[in-house]
Every structure is written in structure tokens, then in C-alpha cells.
Design a protein that fits this description.
This protein is mainly alpha-helical. Helix content is 70%, strand content 4%.
Length: 401
């Protein structure tokens, strides 16, 4: 078994593509991809805020101050609406044809004296699929006028400040967040980290798995290996440990990469909130995250090797393995659902329990007793899958399809 393991490891280390996915991807590309996505996203949002938008006003004569307020917005450009457009259907068709970005209709009862003239209902015609930035700007303008008109109404009613507050908000819920800052931040981002870790571990094990089964079939070296005096179960174990080694290495590098970037961010390369959150995650938490990934990688290795043994070619093996990405995503999604916590039956659900545990470790609320359920269930499943892989490898009809 160890001879097979040593042989496969030597071949693995010669494969630059595999080494790239095991080491370079977690250390370099992982933070670059996330940082790049955040940078591009911020630029897109900034561009959407500064892009010029054309608009038309119906009933502008009822409120010159509202019309002027819209004109004062730098990215808004007022255009004249054709005189023959006056019905709701015609306005809708005009906006839908992209002749104008949006249309505002001001009602006849528009007045500063809302007590006398009633509630003001502005009608906004826009494409609901976009222009969210426009809506936010309009809401800001409407809020300003609403506050002003409320004050006018309160003055007419001769209400003091306390009476005004009571009228505006008769009932209020005052929240007291008993969670500390780490727990709050961990709840927000803790569910995403297992997704990236699982994907990188799976990717790190996928390439060597494809090569150790289907790849050997294509090269014709599998037959040579089978006629050696090594027992087949030892051949499978040697290949299994090689794939697991690649996956564990990816897991280790991933966790170390997160730890390194955590240290960098906590020393001043991020804002104060991120610094406090990152510096609160201890070394023990990172060690436990890595240890929990070991049986997960064993599950990946057993499944990947089984598929690779069954496949006729390297390309076919890749086709079988690609859907596993979606299979892995589902347990992580379960871990992000509200009400799913690391207790009861969820502590025994494979992959979901690990994702939940990683989330709890990041939050700092881990119940360490649940580690027995996590390691126990994951190890049992990994052992069962490995036993099936050995049985699968002993079938001649599978090896020589």
C-alpha cells in the first residue's frame, strides 16, 4: 500500500496543474477573486449612481418645488413628455420603449397643507427590473418633503415634540442585541466560508482522482499495476490516501491562507470592524476547522476514486465528477437556512454538520460536545464509501469496461 502511495505522490508532485489547484489557488487566487469581485462590484454600483437618467414630469404645475428638487439632482435630466401621451397605458408604453428612464406624476392635491388636502400619492413609472438607484434617490427626496410637511401639520395642530413623536410612532420596539460583535459578524459571513473551503478541497482532490483511475486506464498502466503481487485493496488504499493527501493539503493551505489573511487584516489592512472580528478568531478555532475537514476530504476522496475507477477515460471521469460541485453546495445551503442549528439531527447530517460547526467556530459559540457527533457520523460515512470503493475496484467488469 505504501509503495503505491509513494509512487502516486511522486507523480502527483510532478503535475504542475494539480499543484496549482492544491497550493496556488487557495493562497493567491482565493483572496484575489474575492477582493476583485468586491472591487468590481463597488465600481459598478458607483457607476450606476453617477449615470445620467432622463425623466419626465406630469402635473409639474402642481408643485414647482418638487420639480426643482428633481432638477437639482446631478444625474437626472428633465425631458418634455409628448403632448399626445396622457393615459396610464400610453405612459407605461412610452417608458417601456426606453424613450425615458422614468416618469413622475404629481397629483392635483399636492400641497404643503396635508391636513386640508389629504395624503399625496406620487406615481412613478419605471422599469421594475432596474433603476434601483433612481428609486433610492427619489425616496430620499420624498422623505425630505414628508418631514417638512409633517412639521407644518404639527404646527397647525399645536403639538409639542413629545406628542409629535407619539403620533408618528405610537408603538416602538427597542432592540437589545445580546450577541457580541464577533457573533453578529460571524452570523453574517460564517455561512459563506464553508462553501469556499469545501469547493477548494473538492477541486484539490478532483484532478489527482481523475488521473489515478481513469488516467491510468488511458495510459495502459493499470494492467501493469494489477499484475503486481500487491493486493487490490492495498492498491485502492494507496490511491485513496494519495487523493486524500491532495485534498487535505488543499484544506490545510486554505485554512492557513485564511489565517494569514486574517493576521494581515487584523494588523491594519482593513477597517476597524473587520480588524476586531478577524483578531477575535483564535488559533484553536483554525485547528478545529482543519481537523473537521479531514473526514470530509476522506468522503470526497472515496467518491472521486469510485467514479474515476468506473470511467473509461480522463474526460469521462471529469464529466462524472463535475455534478459533485452541486451535490456539495446543497448541504452548505442547508447550513445557511434560518432555524438550522448545530444540535439534534443536524449535528449528524454529513457536510451540513461540518458547515454549521465552522460557522459556530467563527461566531465563537461552538458547543464542543457536538464534535463527537460530527466526527463520528462523517468518519462512518467515509469508511462506508471507502469499503464500497474497494469492492468496486475488485469488479473486473468495472475495471475493464
Amino acid at each position: 500500500m505504501w509503495l503505491v502511495f509513494q509512487k502516486e505522490i511522486k507523480e502527483l508532485l510532478r503535475d504542475r496543474k494539480t499543484l496549482f489547484f492544491m497550493i496556488a489557488l487557495p493562497i493567491l487566487l482565493f483572496p484575489l477573486i474575492i477582493g476583485g469581485a468586491i472591487y468590481v462590484g463597488s465600481k459598478v454600483v458607483e457607476g450606476a449612481k453617477t449615470e445620467e437618467r432622463s425623466f419626465a414630469i406630469i402635473g409639474g404645475e402642481y408643485s414647482s418645488e418638487f420639480t426643482q428638487k428633481l432638477n437639482d439632482v446631478e444625474q437626472f435630466k428633465l425631458v418634455e413628455l409628448p403632448a399626445d401621451i396622457d393615459t396610464k397605458e400610453e405612459i407605461t408604453a412610452y417608458v417601456k420603449a426606453d424613450n425615458v428612464d422614468f416618469v413622475i406624476e404629481i397629483p392635483e392635491n399636492y400641497s404643503r397643507d396635508v391636513l386640508a388636502n389629504g395624503k399625496i400619492v406620487l406615481t412613478l413609472y419605471r422599469n421594475q427590473a432596474g433603476l434601483a438607484v433612481v428609486e433610492s434617490v427619489l425616496n430620499k427626496i420624498v422623505d425630505e418633503f414628508s418631514e417638512e410637511y409633517q412639521n407644518v401639520a404639527f404646527e397647525n395642530l399645536t403639538l409639542n415634540e413629545e406628542q409629535q413623536k407619539s403620533l408618528l410612532e405610537p408603538i416602538k420596539i427597542e432592540q437589545v442585541n445580546v450577541a457580541d460583535e464577533r457573533e453578529t459578524q460571524g452570523e453574517n459571513i460564517g455561512g459563506l466560508i464553508p462553501y469556499f473551503i469545501f469547493m477548494l478541497c473538492l477541486q484539490g482532490a478532483m484532478l489527482p482522482a481523475s488521473d489515478l483511475g481513469a488516467g491510468e486506464k488511458e495510459r495502459g498502466t493499470l494492467e501493469t499495476l494489477l499484475i503486481t503481487p500487491i493486493e487490490r485493496n492495498k492498491i485502492v488504499l494507496g490511491k485513496f490516501f494519495t487523493i486524500a493527501f491532495a485534498g487535505v493539503t488543499s484544506a490545510l493551505v486554505t485554512v492557513l491562507s485564511i489565517a494569514i489573511w486574517t493576521t494581515v487584516l487584523s494588523q491594519g489592512a482593513a477597517n476597524e470592524v473587520v480588524m476586531k472580528f478577524m483578531s477575535s478568531i483564535g488559533a484553536i478555532d483554525f485547528i478545529l476547522v482543519f481537523l473537521m475537514l479531514v473526514p470530509v476530504v476522506a468522503i470526497f476522496a472515496a467518491v472521486l476514486l469510485t467514479l474515476s475507477i468506473y470511467a473509461r477515460s480522463f474526460k469521462e471521469a471529469q464529466g462524472y465528477m463535475t455534478p459533485l460541485v452541486f451535490v456539495v453546495i446543497i448541504p452548505v445551503i442547508f447550513a445557511m437556512l434560518p432555524g438550522v442549528e448545530l444540535k439534534g439531527i443536524w449535528a449528524w447530517v454529513p457536510l451540513t454538520n461540518v458547515a454549521l460547526a465552522i460557522k459556530e467556530l467563527i461566531k465563537g459559540t461552538m458547543d464542543y460536545v457536538q464534535l463527537f457527533a460530527i466526527f463520528g457520523s462523517t468518519a462512518i460515512i467515509a469508511g462506508g464509501l471507502l469499503a464500497f470503493c474497494i469492492h468496486w475496484f475488485k469488479q473486473e467488469k468495472v475495471l475493464f469496461r
